[in-house]
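Open question from group meeting: does this chain pack into something compact, or does most of it stay loose? Before anyone orders reagents, we agreed to write out a predicted structure and look at it together. Recording both the input and the output here so the notebook holds the full record.
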Amino acid sequence: MATSMSIGATGPELKQLIEILPEGETIEVLGDTGEEVAVLLTVKRGSEKPLSPEEWLAELDALAEEIGRAWKSDKSAVELVSEMRR
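Structure tokens returned:
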């Protein structure tokens, strides 16, 4: 069962950590005995404006080019996945 709580109720130190922690980074919360009792993962989005569809496709094309240059196999990714599923 999940429990939710206002970040304000968790204390100012935690709020400050979350505000400065980059997106995708984690904070481990340790209990009194030093054992990990929780892991917080930041999922906040930056203040960057969203990409337009054209910009998004350009980034996707650039990524495809980069992967293509680094690809070492004679087989395509589709062929390799198909073989793994057999």
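Observations to bring back to the group:
The first helix runs from residue 7 to 10.
The helical segments are 7-10, 12-20, 53-70, 77-85.
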